[in-house]
Amino acid sequence: GSQTDLIRRLPKAELHLHIEGSFEPEQMMALAERNKIVLPFKTLEDAKAAYAFSNLQEFLDLYYQGMQVLRTEEDFFDLTWAYLQRAKADNVRHVEMFYDPQAHTERGVPFGVVTDGILAAIKKGEQELGITSYLIMSFLRHLSEEDGFDLLVESEPWHDKFIGVGLDSSEMGHPPLKFERLYQRCREIGFKLSMHAGEEGPPSYVREALLDIGVDRIDHGNRCMEDPELVSILREMQVPLTNCPLSNLSLCVIDDLKKSPVKAQLEQGLLVTVNSDDPAYFGGYIGRNYEQTAAALDLSDSQLIQLARNSFTASFLLDADKQRHL
Ligand code: ADE
Ligand code: ZN
């Protein structure tokens, strides 16, 4: 319909995308063959049949398994380049992508192999697709804060290549305050700070991220809606939320897209954005996230336009660059 056209035409920024979560089963099978790795599934149908999750951890188990196929700089280049071409098709103009270095270094793939492969594709995307991309280095929260400090030291030669840091993986039992000293150090370095919070975890995790850590952006943040005072603080501070509707549905954060908080968050004046999270696993890239959410929540054209504008406002672009897009 006409909203599909509007969505395709709107210039968008994608602010919550794990590059390893854009690893399509087709590409996984091709790289497995190239690297002489045997996958636990034989056909595409077998792979996709496994993509039925009842919570975050069930997804994470498959996500970490799938990425074991990624070994060489060329693999990380090809992964990132494939994503950027899909983003181009959805009229994405700017991307802030997470990656999980610890998930690669702990299986013996050097930090530089991973990072340089991604960075080379980012450069090509700027030159050939006109898409700017910022890279966000994510810490795995199921690991220790000390492991995070080790990553921070190992990554030092590349620090000027990152816009900021993130915190992802298993949320429950790993609250933001577990990483208070690490984030203090990241702030001193000059990184933008984001954390996944309130995806499965309680509103208190969102409070910690916002008020104790002082993050610049909250990833997901769904469960803030259970705490009206927290909603008021988020509105007052205009700290962005990167919502991921199809992810929320796939991981049973919501049992129906009609229960996505996006519309309520817009109506309550929060700086909410729509993103794809791990599009190869959750059934759609950013365009499909906008489309399905609009259909389920009966969003108006002006709400869709607001979401696209929010994506630039909520980005880590400099104000002058935001203005070019708004
Ligand atoms: N890593 C990749 N996707 C994630 C998500 N949705 N939540 C937490 N960690 C993740
Ligand atoms: Zn995520």
From TrEMBL:
Residues 11-326 form the Adenosine deaminase domain. The keyword Zinc applies. InterPro entries: A_deaminase_dom (IPR001365), ADE (IPR028892), Ado/ade_deaminase (IPR006330), Metal_Hydrolase (IPR032466). The active site is at residue 199. One of its GO terms (biological process) is adenine catabolic process. Substrate binds at residue 278. One of its GO terms (molecular function) is zinc ion binding. Its cofactor is Zn(2+). Keywords: Hydrolase, Metal-binding, Nucleotide metabolism, Zinc. It comes from the Bacteria. Its EC number is 3.5.4.2. The record marks 220 as: Important for catalytic activity. Belongs to the metallo-dependent hydrolases superfamily. Adenosine and AMP deaminases family. Adenine deaminase type 2 subfamily. Catalyzes the hydrolytic deamination of adenine to hypoxanthine. Plays an important role in the purine salvage pathway and in nitrogen catabolism. HAMAP family: Adenine_deaminase. NCBIfam families: aden_deam (TIGR01430), PRK09358.1-6 (NF006850). This is Adenine deaminase. The lineage of its organism: Bacteria, Pseudomonadati, Pseudomonadota, Alphaproteobacteria, Hyphomonadales. The gene is add.
